[in-house]
Sequence to fold (63 residues):
Amino acid sequence: MALAATGYSGTPLPAKLGLKDGMVAAFIALPPELDDLAGAVDFAAIDRLADWSEISGRQRYDA
Fold:
């Protein structure tokens, strides 16, 4: 499913969230309707986690 069209501001959701190429991101409990957000930019690495209990204290994330 593609990300929804932009709202009144015309700014795409990844830009509103500050997502940029090369970031290391963790998506925690990402709902299915936002699944495309994980591929919206060229992330250096992505972790998809079911909930906060799965996050590692050793991994550093940009987003």
Remarks:
- Strands lie at 24-28, 45-49.
- The first strand starts at residue 24 and ends at 28.
- The chain has a mean pLDDT of 88.
- Residues 21-63 form one domain.
